[in-house]
Design a protein that fits this description.
By secondary structure, this protein is of the alpha/beta class. 33% of the residues lie in helices and 22% in strands. An eight-stranded mixed beta sheet has the order 4-5-6-3-7-8-2-9, sandwiched between helices. A seven-stranded mixed beta sheet has the order 10-16-13-12-11-14-15, with helices on both faces. A two-stranded antiparallel sheet has the order 1-17. The C terminus is likely disordered.
């Protein structure tokens, strides 16, 4: 595996707590900024090294929005590198606990998920020497503050990483804007701070996002969304004629409404691309004639046209209609994933990448794309609850069907001669690669 130099900000992240660092007396570190900017990997390695420099037999917390996300985003890339640095591990999965060993020392690292307000009860009662909160902006304030309150061991420190969110977000207001008052080191990362990213890959990310997601994930700015949710859909050739059969598989997505509009889309897959081929869109208010569940079901059957469905992904709040479809037993039925902002981001990426295409036979979807806008009145990310029914059913398809499909994965190996920490966690004089700023090409 090739080695490239660490960037200046990566080196600051790795060494801020060391004796000779000008930041050694800071009580916290905050790393925010663009995706793929190298902040999480360096923060994780630095956290474990600091723990063994300062403590033996202590308890620490590793926190993510969910434990599954924490394993994927932090532990999976960090643990193999720590093994190369001489750390060993023993996992107690039932306790969400890692026992970590290094040259006679042992510390305990507990895993926590902070997905909602109730999560704060999970971490109560702990006495911690430090906590790392990965993607802290996605966690409720009550959980974060409870985690920080558990750090009562002398010399404990706080470690934060996140991508930007809304500028009215409590973490931006209370920690980033007040980092000096909080005695925290604040490091803002861009993609250029990750030297393992090629210019071609950086250019790809510039093409991938648009609007507020571009500002946040590519430029690393805390910015509020405004204007059209999918502004690029106003470009020419964004809507295509339906391709000729055959299709390898079919699926259906639906946003159910009784008084509000009911929108269903039939999707067909051809050459690896999902096409929204045609739609059923019924506005009871405009028609002044509400339809029953049975009438919507018959319209759905007509839309499907006898094609074998991989699944029908339906609005999870449509309990009665979901039950009707299950009883009919004609289609495999799934309640849709319904994280709105994440779903919008995933849909925008899928449209920009060409993984999904909207056919020009879907007139109501085309109309909604032109008028679907962010709500600029509140202090949170949310689209206006207007002209959003086809938008919701398309989002349900992407979040539930497209995101569930396998994506390419890559296996990486690190050299035994890679940069290392010595027993006390300081850069080892025996490994000049680290002192010169060596890094894994990840």
């Amino acid at each position: 595996m090739s080695m490239v130099p660490f960037s200046q900000k990566q080196m600051q992240t790795l060494t801020w707590w060391c004796r000779r660092s000008q930041y050694a007396l800071r009580e916290a570190i905050i790393c925010d900024g663009a995706v793929r900017s190298g902040k999480t990997l360096c923060l994780g390695i630095s956290f474990f090294a600091w723990a063994f420099y300062r403590f033996d037999g202590a308890d620490f917390a590793l926190c993510g929005r969910t434990i599954r996300a924490l394993r994927r985003n932090l532990l999976n890339p960090v643990l193999p590198l720590l093994r190369q640095l001489g750390f060993t591990f023993r996992e107690r999965a039932a306790e969400n606990l890692f026992l970590v060993y290094k040259e006679g020392r042992c510390n305990r690292f507990y895993l926590f998920g902070g997905k909602d307000e109730a999560s704060c009860t999970l971490i109560q009662g702990c006495t911690l020497a430090g906590v790392l909160l990965d993607e802290v902006a996605l966690m409720p304030r009550s959980f974060v503050e409870q985690a920080l309150a558990r750090c009562s061991v002398e010399g404990s420190k706080f470690w934060f990483s996140c991508n930007p969110e809304h500028p009215q977000h409590w973490f931006y207001q209370e920690w980033i804007q007040k980092s000096k008052q909080r005695n925290a080191l604040y490091l803002h990362f861009t993609m250029e701070d990750n030297p393992s990213l090629s210019q071609e890959m950086i250019a790809r990310y510039h093409r991938l996002y648009t609007g507020a997601f571009y500002e946040r994930f590519v430029l690393g700015r805390w910015t509020a969304p405004f204007g059209a949710v999918y502004p690029f859909m106003a470009e020419k050739d964004r809507f295509c004629p339906p391709p000729d059969p055959p299709f390898s598989e079919f699926a259906l997505s639906g946003d159910y409404g009784t008084r509000n509009p009911c929108s269903f889309g039939l999707w067909g897959r051809k050459d690896g691309i999902w096409y929204r081929l045609r739609e059923y869109y019924y506005d009871a208010r405009a028609e002044q004639n509400p339809r029953t569940d049975e009438e919507h079901y018959q319209a759905l059957r007509e839309l499907v046209g006898g094609n074998p469905l991989r699944c029908a992904v339906i609005d999870p709040s449509a309990a009665s209609f979901l039950e009707l479809l299950r009883r009919k037993g004609e289609f495999p039925v799934l309640p849709a994933q319904n994280q709105v902002v994440d779903g919008i981001r995933q849909t925008a990426s899928a449209l920009k990448q060409g993984r999904i295409r909207i056919c020009n036979t879907c007139k109501d979807a085309m109309r909604e794309f032109s008028v679907y806008r962010w709500d600029e009145r509140g202090g949170r990310d949310a689209p206006l609850k207007q002209n959003d029914h086809a938008m919701d059913d398309i989002r349900y398809f992407v979040s539930t069907v497209l995101q569930g499909e396998p994506s390419p994965c890559y296996a990486l190996a690190a050299s035994r001669e890679a940069a290392r920490f010595d027993f006390l966690g300081e850069p080892s004089k025996g490994y000049p690669e680290f002192e010169k700023g060596g890094a894994y090409d990840l």
